[in-house]
Each structure stands twice: as C-alpha cells, then as structure tokens.
Amino acid sequence: MNIIKADGEWPELKNSILVAAFSGWNDAADAATSAVRYLGEQVSTETFATLDPEEFYVFTETRPQTRLNEDGEREIIWPTNEFAAQSNLPGLKRSLVTLIGVEPDLKWRTFADTFIEICRRCNVTEVVLVGALVAPVPHTRPVPITGAATDPLRLERVRKVGISGSRYEGPTGIVGILSERCQHEKIPLISFWGAAPSYLTASPNWKVTSGLLDALNLVLNLELELSSLHAMSRRFESQVTQAVNRDEQVAAFVQALEEQYAMDEGSEGKIEALPEEEEDENDTELPSAELLIQDLERHIRQRQERNDRPSEEN
Predict the structure, then answer these.
(1) CB of 210 within 8 A of CB of 233?
(2) CA 265, 24, 254 angle in degrees (round to 5)?
(3) Which domains does the chain have, with CATH numbers?
C-alpha cells in the first residue's frame, strides 16, 4: 500500500528547510501547529502530499470528524498529515516545506521512515521541529523558549538569540522520535519548544505561537512580517489578564508565578519583549472570554481537589 498520497506532481525544491508540528501531546494550546500554519500562510505554501491515515491511527482514539460542506452535504474529515511547499524563499535561495500533522497512534517507526523518504524527495537539508508544552509560567511574561540543534553551527545560532537548552528526560512524543531519526540519517536538525501556562489551555494561545515564530524568524533568517501576530499576542494576553483578575485565587496564583519568574529572569531561554505596534482588529479571532474563564475555573477546581485530598499514611 502506498502511504504517501501525492496531490499532482511533486514540486521541484532545492536546499529545502522542512518545518513540522503535530497536534496532540506535542502541541499545548495548539501553539505549535498554529505557528507552522501561520508560517505557511505568510510564504504562500501549496499542499503537495498527505499520508494515508489508515496505517497510523486507531480511529476510536483519534476519531475522524464529520461536518457539513458548503453544499450542505455531510463529509468525513480524517486525521491528516499535510505537506506543503514554497519553492523559493525570498532572499534565501532555498525552498520551504511545512508539515502540519496529527501525532500517530501506531507504527511510529514506519511513520519516521515515511518522513525521511519525503525529506529525501524534497531535497531537505535542514529540519526544524516545533512543539509546545505545559509549564508553570505566567502569561504576563515573555514566553520561555527552549531549543536544541544537532550540530555546533546551528546550536550557536540558537544560543545567540537567547534560547536555552533543555535537560528533559522522560516520555516523548513523535517530535522526539523524528529528532533521533534525523540525527541517525545525518539530516541537520533544530527543535524549538514554547512553554504554555499550565492554568490556561484555551486554544490557540497566540502568545506562545508568537514566541515560537519569533524564534524561527531569528534563527532561520526568514524575515517574516509578524506585526499582525504580535498584535494578536498582546490582545490575547490582555484578554487573559481580564479573566484572571475576576478571581482572587487565580490572580494570587499568577502573581506567585510572576514572582518566581522574576527570580529566574537572569537565566537564558527567553525571547526579548516585543516592541509596541498598532493593533489590527481584523486579525484571526481569539478564544472567547467565556472559554478563558472556564479554563481558569477548571484550574481552580483541580487545585482545590488536590489540596483537599487526604495525605497517605505511612
């Protein structure tokens, strides 16, 4: 069975950068997939291939979605891994490939084989994997970004923009699997992870998305125009702050996170605060205030349940 489903002819690409993100475990608050989607929109990528989902998903776990199309007919939307490309990145004389996917349930080694096959077909000479994780960080401060690279030159580029490394050990997702596979295949790799506040799961988190794209922009010299995204980030932060201030418990919790952040402010891993720019009211919609409040109330309940739980006796 052919796993790769080409959409017409394969594009002619040269010295390509492949930037990928996956929804699910690797994508707190949809920040990583939103970043790669925004990148693709900025450079006008076009889809050229997808992967057959039959091989990689347990559909009772990762369920297809049903929706009505423009003609009022019902259609099924399957989990997709979509490859898109722009053959010429302005100023770089390189091509860009983006992959926005869904973390597979099955056959991760086969998935990695297929990923490498597409890298070879697209003349990929550099892979960038983007992820987002939940962390005890305040929404009012610059987004902590961690990064890694597989060679000294790229690692120096990452460190020069103030992005620190990570010493995480534990369960991993498909991003970790692909990172190791790229190293084995000697494909240069950079990975970025943005930290999303643990008390806020409303999606997308435009502030984390903005932080990830700032990192991509700086390290890859993409020269993207991100003023609209920066405006969305500030509006998102303002909206969350208003919701936080409605509840004393959450406000006190956020204040404690801010104090801890201030203590750690001298450490690496933080992108500089963005300059003030004009707001664009026509940007992509933000999560509703009601959704933000529900998020915060859920967080309060979970904290109270943990505090009320009796400790185990020895």
Answers:
(1) yes
(2) 30
(3) 4-306 (3.40.50.10900)
- Rounded distance between C-alpha atoms, residue 252 and residue 31, angstroms: 25
- Which H or E element spans position 68? strand 65-68
HSE-CB at 248 with a 13 A cutoff on CA atoms is 0
Q: How far apart are CA 281 and CA 251, in angstroms?
A: 27
Q: Give the integer Cα–Cα distance in Å for 300 and 243.
A: 13
pLDDT at 150: 92
Six token digits for residue 237:
């932060």
pTM: 0.84
pLDDT in tens, 33-78: 999 999 999 999 999 999 999 999 999 999 999 999 888 899 999 9
Question: Residue 163 burial by CB count (10 A; 0-12/13-18/19+): exposed, middle or buried?
Answer: buried
DSSP string, 197-224: ETT---S--HHHHHHHHHHHHHHHT---
User: What is the spatial distance between Cα 142 and Cα 274, in angstroms, rounded to a whole number?
Assistant: 9
Of 133, 120, 132, the residue nearest 182 (C-alpha): 120
